[in-house]
Known about the structure:
By secondary structure, the protein is an alpha+beta fold. The protein is 40% helix and 20% strand. It contains 12 helices and 17 strands. An 8-stranded mixed beta sheet has the order 1-10-11-12-15-9-8-4. A 3-stranded mixed beta sheet has the order 7-13-14, with no helix packed on it. Strands 2-3 form a two-stranded antiparallel sheet. The radius of gyration is 27 Å and the shape is elongated. The N and C termini lie far apart (58 Å). Its EC number is 6.1.1.11.
Amino acid sequence: xxxxxxIREQPDAFRAALRKRRADPTLVDRVLEADxxxxxxxxxxxxxxxxxxxxxxxxxxxxxxxxEERIAEMKRIAAQAKAQEPALQAAEAGLETxxxxxxxxxxxxxxxxxxxxxxxxxxxxxxxxxxFPPRDHVDLGASxxxxxxxxxxxxxxxxxxxxxxxxxxxxxxxxxxxxxRLGAEGFIPTIPPVLIKRENLIGMMGGAALDEQMVYRIxxxxxxxxxxxxxxxxxxxxxxxxxxxxxxxxxxxxxxCFRREAGAHGKDTRGMFxxxxxxxxxxxxYCHPDRSWEEHDYLLALQERxxxxxxxxxxxxxxxxxxxxxxAARKYDIETWMPxxxxxxxxxxxSNCTDFQARGxxxxxxxxxxxxxxxxxxxxxxxxxGTRAIIAILENGQQADGTVRLPPPxxxxxxxxxxxxxxxx
Length: 425
């Protein structure tokens, strides 16, 4: 959630921010009108309450008919104030609904444009050259008997998969690799709930939480399945006041994630690239607002280190404003070369959400030197998304004999094996 006070003070800046995001700038005007109406009703109720209080203070000093008349007047005023309460409550709810639809203003350096306008900051590693026709991860997974998408369709429908044998072990190896690396950096390993209260989801995501195309909801419950552990890790401290000395609080979330992907109908339907369920290791940071951009660079550097050590070719993209999610003020994507796609595919993202999520969930810290409470900043970044990491490893590491060369950092987690082979000759 953005700061209503800032919208009042800088409406033109927010209109410009919405235009940059390719959103409707008139949302600012609707917020301001709803705010004006709410404040008008608040003032009316306060005037009535003040009159009621004056009457209640005068009554003990009165006697006879004057006393009875004043009591009757106080009751009329109280009834008028009470009659205003439904309108005030509706105005407050309407304002909050509109306010939660306002996305975080993008950082001034964020590129203009939409989904195709992200700026490539750097390319690391060269795509492999094969002396044979390379196969995609679906064919490789079938020949190595580690991926089965046909049987998963019988179980759960499209966009699901079975990982088996070395596929399951490879995913576990990736998770342990990421958790161990992040643990060495001081991140706290955390397995969170996969179900999130709707109010927390709205606090984390803003208006996007209400998009039925994105989120699986539990029928009859005020709960939804988390699309990423970021949702639970960010909600963990809802309503709390943290100590400045404890910041940054860095968490390493290990969870199964669920995505409806209803808006991606017909897109990336083959294999594991765009699925409804996957396992992921996520970085999350509660950070001092003065250091959040430094923290953003730190998380990106960790992501790159993880990927460089795996030997996977990738590029870093600064995402354009029109492609940012509502909470993010800036986001980087790491896109990894995938021979089966003949191009790069997103494998990680890294976002600075500034105070948007903390304000939505009322997460603050108490400055050590005194002064008022301040909102923390929150940041998140993918360490490893199992399915897409496996795609990249299989397709980049494939060899002419049908085996797959494993990245050296994963070898200790796979019993010392350096190559994946079919289970039967």
